[in-house]
Amino acid sequence: MDIVTICPALVIGPLMQPTVPTSIKVFFDIVKGEGETVGNRLEILLDVRDVANALLLAYETPEASGRYICSSTPRKLCDIINISKSLYPNFTYPQKFLEVEEEDSTTFSSEKLQKLGWTFRHMEETIRDSFESYTALGILT
Fold first, then answer.
1. CATH code, domain with 112
2. What is the pTM of this model?
3. Is residue 54 within 8 Å of 22, Cβ to Cβ?
4. Number of separate domains in the chain
5. Which InterPro entries does this one have (predicted)?
């Protein structure tokens, strides 16, 4: 028996269901912040459609084996929020960023998955489609 696993980063993106998954709640906490100032740490967000593509690719590729990290490019929180603000300026966002020392410099690489032909969307597309989905469902106001 061959077992192939896909290990994704924090998954966001358009929803197909009316319930809010935990990863989306975490995303809301990241973007909205707890106050005016937030720690400017690295975040790795991944589009749910890219995870679905990775799963299909691993399933349909006979030479796929083992574990695959499914991750996009890490971005600083200020970059994620600035992208969100430029697309959706009417929401409330943290205003100040405090540089924080990263606890762990571990790097997650999707190189093995990319060698199978997998790619991921640009962060701007993921954030835009996410916000549109969440506002249409009434879970982001």
1. 3.40.50.720
2. 0.90
3. no
4. 1
5. NAD(P)-bd_dom_sf (IPR036291), NAD(P)_dehydrat-like (IPR050425)
